[in-house]
Amino acid sequence: MTLFHFVNCALLTFGPHVVYYSATPLSEYDTMGTSIKAAVVYLVTALIKLVCLATFLKVPENEGFDPYQEVMKVLIGLVDVAGLYFALTQLTHRNISQNHKFQAVGLGWAFADSVLHRLAPLWIGARGLEFTWEYIFQGLEANANLVMTLSLAALGSLMWLRKNKPKTLVPIIYACAFLLATMPSITSYLRKALEWQTREVVGFEIFSSLVMAFFSWQLFSACQRPL
Amino acid sequence: MAAPATTEAFSLSYSMFSLLLILFACVELGDAASAVHVYRLIQYDLGGVPLGSRISHLNHHAASLPLDPNADLSRSALLLPLLDLDLSFLTDYITNKKPLGGLVILLPQKLGNKFADFGKHVDLTRVKSVLNQLEDLLVHAELPYPVYFAYESSTFDSLLGDIRGKNFSSQPATSTNGGYKLVISTPEAKKLSPPTTSNFQGWLPGQKDGDSEQLPTIAIVASYDTFGAAPALSVGSDSNGSGVAALLEIARLFSRLYSNPKTRGKYNLLFGLTSGGPYNYNGTQKWLRSFDQRVIESIDYAICLNSVGSWENDLWMHVSKPPENVYIKEIYDGFSEVAQDMGFSINVKHKKINISNSRVAWEHEQFSRFRVTALTLSGLSAAPEFLQSTGNLHDTRKSADEKAVARTVKLVAESLARQIYEHKGKKLDIFADGSSLAVNVHHIQSWLDLLSRTPRVAPFLSKNNPFIAALKKELSDHTVDVHVQNEVLDGTFTFYDSTEATLNIYQVAGVTFDFLFLMVLGSYLIVLFSFLVITTRGLDDLINIFRRPAVRKSKST
């Protein structure tokens, strides 16, 4: 029966990615190659981040929130942004519109993130006899992560691929992008310093991802309008 | 176009929300799995009749009292705290052979060695009587399900609270509606080869006056092994750890006297630590059989020590020859003289031996069958039944008082000394407190501590156990000619292994929960799919996905 639970949680974690790919026009334009390339870039970025973390961070003595360590983690988190930049701009894509490009890159990025961070714990933990809510929360987190990555990819494409943007919106774009990039640090701050419970943190993630998605969508459509 | 879609979406989300509410109501947020050390009920065959718990692995949902009278417990493991035990309920279940998935009995912490100082306060006398009845019931019945003992802890307290809270819905937890699952995964118990028992003997030879006439011998004997409902917990501090501690102290005192040729008495002293006590003193019989007939004839009398750690003012002297017998009277007079000086009374109890009955209630009866005068000194007033008072669950360190053992030692030592050195009738205090021959309470205490930490059920106590080596060393320190006799126990008893295990407690969610979750997930994914199709491709595309087969059909006709 617990294999059942594993299947359920796997569906929750990876299902939305598959649904997103098949529901939107991405499947019609066959952007699978782009997604795969984005996933590979994510892998390389993750490795670089690991090396940086191992070199610069100290092992924490206590569980408390250490601001200097967190600032260091934020800086290393910007490596993520660099990777996304690379995936969006430097990889050669076939002729797909900008609209679809950021979606494909974001999807591939989020899928790789889910697989790397969540598949192994799921396989090992969710098949046991003991029932915990942990893996359901993890799946919800994966969903929120997908939305946030898509928003970040959208803002990224706005920042780096679109040449003509309304001047007033530029700082807002950069602010939103920075907020999205530092989202992991914000959640870890909530978890450690304010000691929120897991369900509260996941709720916050979902809520903030929807809010940021809304903002990104508005910004994107605002930039679509011909000047 | 947009209006019907939004109302549709709204109703969908509303139904999803209500489903989620039901989901959350089914299962509470629980702790992770816990693992607890548990001790199994003994499994044995007596003369071919299977007794005790016959199964060792457990994998059932936990249930507890109060229960629906018609509840089917064949797939539940019953958790029973000892203090709330309803013995009539359990007796009913066992005597009517009702099916039960498993039984876990929770003992108060005060009984354990580790928690004895921290446990909640309990009325130990009440606990003792309940435990005795429970053990009697369990040891003499055949139980085709696993039975385990565990100590109470906060884990079990919260577990019981949770289960009792759910009981108000009057449905024991099953695989469909979740609950707690108790899992003990051990392989099935295997038959043990007939156990080897070790009988120890040590001599303190007396001073011969030049002529080669054999000196008379006085034997002091105690059996050291135990038998109880839970072999891993059967430490028998009083029965018969107290006897062993007393014997070792007497041996120490007399070895001091006998080490100096000037104070060596004209009697040989034979110390015997026998095994096989609970099994009708089978080991004592084999030990006596191994002796030469001349040695047996030279034994004046034997003093057997049994359960001397729990008496206050009355000590009992059990004999099989009538008290009017001249030898018994002499010994009794010697004892009561010393007892009077020490301020307590000693009573004689006569129990005739029935040769046709194989039941041997006291160790001295084995001596009597070899025509040796013998008696048993005990704090117990009545002869224990078969497999009773042999190291039960309540018989832990607290039930043996080293001061009572010390009094017994002084009694026996003084009486023996007065006889050996021919000072009968004289008011003497050879082993006075504060003298170099004083009874060492700390020696007794340290042996009682060791005995209370060592479960000594014969089939599980191997020859190479460090405890056996410790006994041998202690005897060798104080006596000479230490000899260990290894014998195989008689064939009427067959034992099975697997006495301890680890209980894993899991909180499980039940199939219902999984199905509900799958429904919710499926509807979520479908909603997501529809939402994405509508927003990116338009509502027409969504409808076209479902209409395509119909369109094709109409085209073909």
Automatic annotation (TrEMBL), chain A:
Keyword Membrane found: yes
Keywords: Cell membrane, Endoplasmic reticulum, Membrane, Transmembrane, Transmembrane helix
Parts of the chain that traverse the membrane: 39-59, 71-92, 168-190, 202-220
InterPro entries: TMEM147
One Gene Ontology term, aspect cellular component: plasma membrane
Highest taxon above the source species: Eukaryota
Family: Belongs to the TMEM147 family.
Name of this protein: BOS complex subunit TMEM147
Organism of provenance: Rhynchospora pubera
TrEMBL record, chain B:
Pfam families assigned: Nicastrin
Keywords: Endoplasmic reticulum, Glycoprotein, Membrane, Signal, Transmembrane, Transmembrane helix
Any one GO cellular component localisation term in the record: endoplasmic reticulum membrane
Localization per Swiss-Prot or TrEMBL: Endoplasmic reticulum membrane
Topological category with respect to the lipid bilayer: Single-pass membrane protein
Entry keyword annotation includes Ribonucleoprotein: no
Segments forming a coiled coil: none
Keyword match DNA damage: no
Signal sequence segment: 1-32
One BP term from GO: regulation of signal transduction
Segments crossing the lipid bilayer: 515-539
Family indicated by similarity: Belongs to the nicastrin family.
Protein's recorded name: Nicalin
The species this protein was found in: Rhynchospora pubera
